[in-house]
Amino acid sequence: MHQTVEEIEALFSKSGGEFLTPATEIMEKLRHVKAYLFDWDGVFNPGIKGDGIKSTFAEPDAMGSNLLRFGHWLKFKELPLFGIITAMNNQSAFQLSEREHFHLVYYSLLNKVKALEHIENRFDVNRKQVVFVFDDVLDLSIAQTCGLRFLVKRTGSPLFEEYVRKKGLCDYVCANSGSGYAVREVCELLLGLLGIYSQTVDERVNFSHLYSAYLSERNSLETHFYTIKDGIIQDERNTSCQKKY
Asked: Which listed CATH number (1.20.1540.10, 1.10.10.10, 3.30.470.10, 3.40.50.1000) goes with 5-223?
């Protein structure tokens, strides 16, 4: 028996998350979602860079992404579009995406809304059917127009958070930062609001026939890598730029 929306809202609020849009409204919008998109630096990790320092990801976040996709598959009988949009050339993002068979990665993309436009043209997805998890200024061109927006908490940028709040660019502010498993937090929240969390975990624990069927379908996907050249989004799948890790 799954928890009520009120129980989920209270649980996540108690842990420090903040609903700027009521949980009931988020739940209603989730019924129409077809895609989940994530920024990379500052979302899957704290965004630390430097000479010889690679960006990273955490296994609890990776598990969260898999559970969310499986739960969506259970609920709607199809895989959601799932991917990463990053302004950098992040080898760890490529590695995770290929390992987990994400649909797509947009990289070296400074004007991120171009990815959203490409998704609308390339896939059967409207921007209002997109969930986006983000943390900084480069992400706002997407947050302005997509369906559901989740801001990863960072105590060092209170003015940015206030800007996002005042402009109405966020539906939920995470309790956790990119170094504190914010991706897992969002994935669990969405699964809870979809009313599918317990079943998703039960099926995964038992490695049921349903999970096996999902995994087979998921693992048949080949990740596509997109970047922009001469103002045009191009598919760079399987080129050397991804294969350095």
From this structure: 3.40.50.1000
pTM of the model as a whole = 0.94
Specify the DSSP element, H or E, that contains 72: helix 59-76
Q: Where are the alpha helices (DSSP H) in 174-233?
A: 182-193, 197-205, 209-219
Q: Please give the angle made by the CA atoms of 177, 184 and 2, to the nearest 5 degrees.
A: 130
Q: What angle do CA 149, 151, 157 make, to 5 degrees?
A: 145
> Could you give the CA distance from residue 190 to residue 28 in angstroms, rounded to a whole number?
11
Q: Check: CB of residue 229 under 8 Å from CB of residue 236.
A: no
How do residues 190-223 score in pLDDT, each as one tens digit? 999 999 999 999 999 999 999 999 999 999 999 9
199 token code pair: 């079943």
- CA dihedral (93, 98, 103, 107) positive or negative: positive
Count of CB atoms situated within 10 Å of the CB of 11: 14
Question: Quick one: angle between helices 197-205 and 182-193, nearest 10?
Answer: 110
Q: How far apart are the C-alpha atoms of 202 and 218, rounded to whole Å?
A: 19
Structure tokens at 152: 């990863």
Query: How many whole angstroms separate alpha carbon 131 and alpha carbon 65?
Result: 13
pLDDT tens, residue by residue, 112-134: 999 999 999 999 899 999 999 99
Contact criterion met (CB below 8 Å) for 38 and 83: yes
Q: What parts of the chain have a pLDDT lower than 70?
A: 1, 237-245
Show me where the domains of the chain are located.
5-223
